[in-house]
Amino acid sequence: MRRTARLLTGTALAVAAAGLATAPAYGGESGGLEVFPSSAVPGGDVTVNTAACGDDGTAAGDAGAVGAGTFTLAPSTHEGDAIGQFRVPPSAQPGTYEIVAKCTDGRQVSGDLMVTLASMRQQVQPRGSVKTGVGGALGPDPVQTAAGVAALAVAAAGGTWLLHRRARGDRI
User: Fold this and answer.
1) DSSP β-ladder status, 39-40 and 95-103
2) Residue 26: half-sphere exposure toward Cβ, Cα within 13 Å
C-alpha cells in the first residue's frame, strides 16, 4: 500500500515538475491576440485586441485564413491595447482559423477564431398554441372570449338565484 502511494506521489511530482519546466519564466501575460467573440457565424463582426504592441503601438492584422483579408489594429484607451475589427465573410466554412497581427516593432501575435453555422447565443422562443386536441380556454378572438365570460356570468348568477330560492323554501 505504501509503495503504491509513493509511486503515485512520485509520478505526480514528476508531472508537476515537467509542467513548470515548460511554463514561461516571467509572470506577465504572453501578449497574445484576443479574439472576441471567440466563436462567430459567417457575416458576423469580430473584434481583436492585443497588449503586445505597447501603449502607442499599431499592428497589421491578417484574417486571410478565414477569408476576411487584412485589417488595422490601432491604439486605444483600453489599458494600452491595440484594437481592430473585421467581418467574417458569408462564404466562411465552419472550423478554427488562426488570426495573426504583426506589430510595427516586428512582434507577431496570434489567436484562434472558431466559425460555426449557428449562433450559440440565439435561443428560439416558442410561439403558438399547443395542439392537445382539447381546445383552448382563451382564443385569439376577443369577441369570443367576451361571449364566453358573459355566458359564465349568466350561469353563475342563475345558479346563485336558484340556490337562494331553494334555501328560502320557495318551490320552483
Assistant:
1) unpaired
2) 4
pLDDT of the chain, 172 residues: tens digit per residue: 444 444 444 444 444 444 443 333 333 344 689 999 999 999 999 999 998 888 778 899 999 999 999 999 998 877 778 899 999 999 999 999 999 999 988 899 999 999 998 755 556 677 776 676 665 555 567 787 788 889 999 999 999 988 888 888 776 6
CB contact set of 83 (below 8 Å; sequence gap of 6+): 47, 48, 49, 73, 74, 76
Contact between 172 and 162 (Cβ < 8 Å): yes
Question: Alpha-carbon distance 113 to 50, whole Å?
Answer: 15
158 phi and psi, to 5 degrees? -65, -40
